[in-house]
Every structure is written in C-alpha cells, then in structure tokens.
Amino acid sequence: MKVSQIRLKTSLKDEMIEVLNKQVQREAQTSAIYLSMSSWLQTQGLVHTASFFRKQSEEERTHMFKIFDYILELGAHAISPEIKNIPSDFSNLRDILDEFLELEIKNTESLNHIADLAMKN
Hints:
Elements: H1 5-8, H2 14-43, H3 47-73, H4 93-120
Helix pairs in contact: 2-3, 2-4
C-alpha cells in the first residue's frame, strides 16, 4: 500500500488517529441521541426542553466536525462515523436527564483520555 506524502508529514501517531476517530464517532452518536431526545420531548409538549436538547445536538455535531477537520488538517484519514442504535422512545424526562448526564460524563472522560495520550506523545 502506497502512503501519501501528506500522511508521511503528519505529526499524529496511529494510536492518536484511532482515538480521535473514535471521538468523532462518539460525538456523532451523542448528537443523534440528543436530537432523538429533542424530538420525543417536543411530542410531549416540553418545547423549551426540546429546544435545549436540539442545541446540545448541534453542539456535539460541531465538536465532531472540529475533530474531523483537525485529523484532516494534519494529513491523516478522518473516518465518517456510522450512526446506529439511536433510541426513539423514552419513558420520561427524568430518564432523559439521567442519560444526558451519563453521556456527558463519558464524553468528558474520553476527552481527558485523549489529552492524557497527547501529553505522553
């Protein structure tokens, strides 16, 4: 397999490219979940809460593109994420808020892992 000249010039190690692409996937998945939550909340008449989750969805998508573009700018291959298993029905607002908190904690842990990895390299 021929390696592109741009790829040869990247400062990203393969491990970091893999971790960043996983974060792209995580951000895309989370964005889709938040959008689904927004839709469900809208149908329940919780318009302002639905709007909040729509904005959260957009924020996660923005994060996804920033990381995706960063990978490309450094000459590596950014992978377009596959999105699947998005819930469309929720029990109640409390369950949504619990899941929201859990997703945000996992995302923060993942970003902290990326920062730790970057400091080691």
